[in-house]
Amino acid sequence: MGYQALYAASMADKAAFWAGQARQLAWKRFPDNILSQNDQGFTQWFADGELNMCELAVDVHVAAGRGQQAALIYDSPVAHSKMVITYSQLQQQVARLAGGLLGMGLAKGDSVVIYMPMIPEAVYSMLACARLGIIHSVVFGGFAPHELAIRIEDIQPKAILTASCGIEFEKVIPYKPLVDQAIRESAYKPAHVVVYQRPQLQVSVDHDHDLDWNDLLQHAEPAAPVPVPATHPLYVLYTSGTTGRPKGIVRDTGGYATALYFSMSAVYGMQAGDVFWAASDVGWVVGHSYMVYGPLLKGCTTVLYEGKPIKTPDAGAFWRVISEHRVKALFTAPTAIRAIKKEDPDGELLAGYDLTCLERLFLAGERCDPPTLHWAEHMLHIPVIDHWWQTESGWPMLGIMMGVEPLPVKAGSAGKPVCGYEVAILHDDGSPCQPHEEGLVAVKLPLPPGTLATLWNNDEGYRQSYLSQLPGYYLTGDGGYYDEDGYFYIMGRVDDVINVAGHRLSTGEMEEMVAGHPAVAECAVIGIADDLRGQRPIALVVLKDGQTIHEADLEDELVHLIREQIGAVAYFRNAGVVKRLPKTRSGKILRKTLRQMADGVPFKTPSTIDDPAILDEIKDRLRDRQLGNAFIELV
Ligand code: COA
Ligand code: AMP
């Protein structure tokens, strides 16, 4: 069946379509109730089904004779280590760790925070939680203690699983002090911290509160998978919203397993035994869906790469990993490709590697600019597919379904709706846009399986943020348009969220922090275009009356503040002092206009502006400071 027919089938009878996909999995109890609503009126899939995610991702493959196949290939140029873990070994590791968690008194329904670098133990931790029905919440290792503290307070984990250190290029980053600081900052205190000691750094553990990973495992008996209802939360993954409070995206079990299994073959064209590599981080949704659960559910081999696209040791790093592990499909962020292109524009480092195994490259996490897409196509001579999704959806919403029909790619477009998603471009009042008319990107309800169930402990927040603005639709927060051939173009966020090197961050949160500086009266933090990272944040700051702090000193202090509070990944490097900020007559800061000015994008002066003269002042400041492209003459 071609794309059009399969997509039409997924729309015509959603319950029948997804029941058919769900049958591919080994349920403990296959559901009778396929599509329903919970008492909040939120969509739920497979409500009366029962299954265990870890069993499907690990045990069923061992039982089916794949025990000797590589499940996980760990490749770490920074730790100078490589390891192949078969499905049998994965089962042993995970069952034993689950036994250790049981021994600590944890059980189904409890939660655990995982703050780990890209090591196999991070994957074991996620799967061990899933084995017992413990809800895991992985926090990206690049986040500073404050961000970790916010998440600990919200999810209230019984335990934190961590490692002694992460490694960034040559820099060893001790994790334990970061965890300790986060616990000090959090009003909620978890009962246990378990530390995996890496050879690069041994830390002392305080045996009253902390446990050494090896001690935990020493007396642990392997634990069997615990069946859970399909609607049981597998994990909560926090993602940036428009404020300082990140949103705890709740993912169910049965819908997610069904959607990931479907997407591995239908979107990515993968079959059991194939090697799939998502070059992301376990702390992001890509890590959850396509580094851990998706490939393992499908019986693929997944690559866990602890390194960078460049300088570990060079811009040929990705090509080495692909050729050495015979990777069939790579998934990465456009930033990674831009970084490689910058260091090795002519692809000289490709020459030494046999990349005949690589059949396709998938890009997501941020908009892929056509030159980057074309460069990758030119270098690799394979289809390069931009596809679009978000933490909330858990799996692709737009793309080219390579396993169904490899339709032509259009540069700049994130493809066509994936089965199950009725993607629409709407005006603010909910009326549909015409082709090429930019509007809000929304998805008609009900969302397909695998998408967010709600926000953790915040049903009302889910309704308010995503469902209430356009009744009957899920609002994605992105803006875009479609063309006459049904291809969609995602042009960027319409809210205070930015993507820096594929990392989703909140300018709203940064703004709250900058506004907290004693010299600052008010400020706007905006994302401006960055050649390598796609976007980066800058602040425009109005000083309090009588403040004499020098701009350079204030900038240093704010850079330090954001680094301390959010982490170096925010890549916040500049703050400029301005006399006033452009506002509407009702006092709302015109952030979009600021963004357009900084990026040198032609714009119309908003009719609601209080005082148009402010725009010239700001333009001069941006130009003086060489921030963005404001030096390009505006129309
Ligand atoms: N833990 C701790 N610190 C981290 C980190 C982590 N996991 N990830 C990044 N950082 C730090 C970096 O060390 C750097 O610190 P510094 O300011 O002290 O040098 C800072 O955050 C900024 O990092 P980044 O913007 O990533 O710059 P970089 O120069 O370290 O690397 C790239 C540039 C392009 C190589 C890198 O951004 C990259 O690999 N991008 C692809 C990202 C990606 O795949 N995202 C996918 C999400 S789906
Ligand atoms: P995250 O939740 O971290 O996956 O980030 C999701 C956001 O990243 C989306 O809402 C988009 O703004 C952006 N994004 C992801 N993939 C793409 C893409 N292919 N094209 C454009 N933007 C993208």
Summarize the structure.
With 635 residues, the chain is α/β, with parallel strands linked by helices. The chain has 18 helices and 32 strands. Helix content is 31%, strand content 23%.
Explain how this protein is built.
Helix 3 packs antiparallel against helix 4, helix 3 (53-66) crosses helix 5 and helix 3 (53-66) runs parallel beside helix 10 (285-298). The chain has a domain at 497-625: GMP Synthetase, Chain A, domain 3. It is globular. It has 18 helices and 32 strands. By secondary structure, it is an alpha/beta fold. The relative contact order is 0.09. It is 31% helix and 23% strand. Mean pLDDT is 96; it is low at 631-635. The longest helix is centred in the N-terminal third of the chain and has 17 residues, at 87-103. The N and C termini lie far apart (50 Å). Helix 13 (370-380) links the parallel strand 19 and strand 20 (384-386). A 7-stranded mixed beta sheet has the order 5-4-17-16-18-19-20, sandwiched between helices. A 5-stranded parallel beta sheet has the order 7-6-8-11-12, sandwiched between helices. Residues 141-142, 166, 168, 173, 279-280, 284, 286, 308-310, 332-333, 335-336, 339, 365, 501-502, 532-533, 568-569, 571 line the site of coenzyme A.
Q: Which key terms come to mind for this protein?
A:
single chain, alpha/beta, seven-stranded mixed sheet, five-stranded parallel sheet, 18 helices, binds coenzyme A, binds adenosine monophosphate
In CATH terms, the superfamily of the domain at 497-625 is: ANL, C-terminal domain
CATH architecture of the domain at 497-625: 2-Layer Sandwich
Structural class: alpha/beta
Mean pLDDT comes to 96
CATH topology-level fold name of the domain at 497-625: GMP Synthetase, Chain A, domain 3
Query: What does the overall shape look like?
Result: globular
Order of strands across the main sheet:
5-4-17-16-18-19-20
The percent range for helix content is 25-40%
